Amino acid sequence: MDLCHVPATQEKGWYLALMAPNIKGPNYAWLDPSRLYCHPQGLQDCVADLLQPFQGDTIDMVAGIDAMGFILGSAAAAVLQKGFLAIRKAGHLCVQTVAQPYTDYSGREKVMEVRTDAISPGLRILLVDQWIETGGTMRAAIQLVERLGGVVAGVAAICIEDSEGGRWIQEHYKCSHCVPPRLQPRFNHHQ
């Protein structure tokens, strides 16, 4: 799809066609949404679709997960006129942090951290990431927010796959994603 083209009919998720398939092998995600972010209407519609289920909810801050969650998270924060908090891979913050180990979608053991002075008890935080495959990364972010006394107001991602971790997150938190139900099986099976 051309980066300037906008289809005449724009059903939810039309912008998913902008994503490019992985050509680099199994250590990478199977789809790359960065082309979607380059398309002004695609990015705008994606963020609107992610935020729609949270209209009327109290959200005090948006947190995005390192690194691609920073793009959607900061865009969502701008639309909501809220602050943005970066949840980082360990070793990138030069302030006091709290850390949480996790296993990412490729099975690698990692550590995520967040600054301790940004989340006060009761602060309602919308967590945003690009993709939830196994749920390990998002679950670590949830644990960080809750350990600091924050409340997870919701979870938003372009896609939440039907994995054990994805189902756990959807059962325990209000969630939003952009994949229409008819396309969800294709995304679950990486087709």
Overall average residue pLDDT:
92
CATH topology: Rossmann fold
**Per CATH, which architecture?**
3-Layer(aba) Sandwich
Structural class: alpha/beta
Shape: globular
Rounded Rg? 16 Å
Count every beta strand, where a strand is a DSSP E run of 2 or more residues: 9
Report helical residue fraction.
25-40%
Number of helices: 6
Largest sheet: 7 strands, mixed
H/E topology pattern? EEHHEHEEEEHEHEH
Terminal-residue CA separation: 17 Å
Q: Strand content of the residues, in percent?
A: 25-35%
Report the uncertain regions. none
How many discrete structural domains? 1
The largest sheet has its strands arranged as 5-6-4-3-7-8-9
CATH hierarchy class name: Alpha Beta
GO molecular function, one term: adenine phosphoribosyltransferase activity
EC number: 2.4.2.7
Organism: Probosciger aterrimus
Subcellular location: Cytoplasm
Question: Explain this structure to me?
Answer:
This protein is α/β, with parallel strands linked by helices and 191 residues long. The protein has six helices and nine strands; from the N terminus they run E-E-H-H-E-H-E-E-E-E-H-E-H-E-H. It has a single domain, classed as Rossmann fold, CATH 3.40.50. It has helices spanning 34-38, 40-51, 69-80, 136-147, 164-172, 184-188, and strands at 20-21, 31-32, 61-65, 83-89, 97-103, 109-115, 124-132, 151-160, 175-176. Helix 5 (164-172) links the parallel strand 8 and strand 9 (175-176). The radius of gyration is 16 Å and the shape is globular. The two termini are 17 Å apart. The relative contact order is 0.16. One of its GO terms (molecular function) is adenine phosphoribosyltransferase activity. Its EC number is 2.4.2.7.
